[in-house]
Design goal:
By secondary structure, the chain is mostly helical. The protein is built from four helices and two strands.
């Protein structure tokens, strides 16, 4: 399952097509990484998963722009023309970590109720004797 640009735009997305292609690919890869212990999240169609991809793609795009210094203007000074851009990164945080953190925050809202972020470990016995709290 891949989220197409039509679905993205119909759900309120604002990115241009070429920006969306890059961000959507990163978002799907990150969501696949987050959920891989539970199987292939993209094996079946699910609107919650599509919405998570759209939200993560938007978050990736915004974080990448901010990390590159192209985010929203925080302050501006006309005397010597100085512009400060808003940043959401934590001191010393790399662009990749910022993007991953923002994608997780965005996708979590949609994926948590679906069970795809469930990480409990069991012994493989089918929980016959409630051993899932290893």
């Amino acid at each position: 399952m891949h989220v197409d640009y039509g679905y993205y735009v119909s759900s309120g997305g604002k990115m241009e097509f070429d920006e969306f292609l890059v961000a959507e690919k990163a978002a799907e890869a990150y969501i696949r990484y987050m959920t891989f212990p539970n199987g292939n999240i993209f094996a079946t169609e699910c609107d919650a998963v599509k919405d998570a991809v759209c939200a993560a793609a938007d978050a990736y795009h915004e974080a990448a722009q901010m990390a590159s210094g192209n985010g929203p203007v925080k302050s501006e000074n006309n005397d010597g023309y100085s512009v400060t851009y808003a940043s959401q990164s934590i001191d010393g945080e790399s662009k990749e970590k910022l993007c991953n953190r923002k994608m997780y925050e965005a996708a979590r809202v949609y994926l948590l109720p679906t069970g795809w972020l469930y990480r409990k470990v069991g012994c493989g016995c089918g929980n016959k004797h409630d051993c899932h709290a290893l």
